[in-house]
Amino acid sequence: MKYILLTYLLCLAVAGTTHAKLVQITEDNWRDVLTGEWMVEFFAPWCPACRALQPAWQEFSTWSEDLEINVAQVDVTTSPGLSGRFMVTALPTIFHVKNGIFRQYRGARDKDSFIVYIEDKKWSAVEPVSDWK
Predict the structure, then answer these.
(1) Which residues are designated catalytic?
(2) At 130, is the pLDDT very low, low, confident or very high (cuts 50, 70, 90)?
(3) What is the pLDDT of residues 3-38, one digit of tens each?
(4) Which of 25, 31, 74, 92 could form a disulfide with 50 if both were Cys (CB 3.0 to 4.6 A apart)?
(5) DSSP 62-96
(6) pLDDT the model gives residue 102
(7) Chain Cα centroid distance, residue 104
(8) Euclidean distance between the first and the last CA atom of the chain, given in angstroms as a whole number
(9) For helices 48-61 and 111-119, what crossing angle results, to 10°?
(10) What pLDDT score does 35 carry?
(11) CA-based nearest residue to 84, from 75, 92, 76
(12) CA dihedral 114, 120, 121, 124 (to 10 degrees)
């Protein structure tokens, strides 16, 4: 019985360490991305490319604490005003945001590429988005 309980607790601990820290951004909380460092994906549930990206984006979000960033999503079907505010014209669109400065991510769409983009500060070589409303 002791071993069953220990095994159960160990399984809970392991499961807890892989919990995704994916933040849902809406019209109500979008200003949160103006402070700190973020990777934000704009997506729509009906978009095939967005659906294909979801496993990698979810996996990347589990690294948010290690990378000391926030990983988020904006569903443009429930928050359509945000796609206009941030000039999103194609889906999925990914932005790196640091203290309110937006840069569009144009790299490979896999977890390792996202991690390297943050760790190596590759975003610093990308021209900031000129303006958002």
Answers:
(1) 47, 50
(2) confident
(3) 443 333 334 344 444 455 899 999 999 999 999 999
(4) 92
(5) TTHHHHT-EEEEEETTT-HHHHHHTT--SSSEEEE
(6) 95
(7) 13
(8) 60
(9) 60
(10) 96
(11) 76
(12) -110
Residue whose token pair is 């951004």? 25
| Structure token pair of residue 27 | 């019209």
Structure-token match 């390297």, residue found:
116
Pick the closest to residue 58 from 92, 22, 15 (CA basis). 22
Answer yes or no: are the C-beta atoms of 25 and 40 closer than 8 Å: yes
Confidence (pLDDT) at 40? 98
Q: Which pLDDT value is given to residue 115? A: 98
Q: Which DSSP letter does residue 35 get?
A: S
Amino acid type, 24: Q
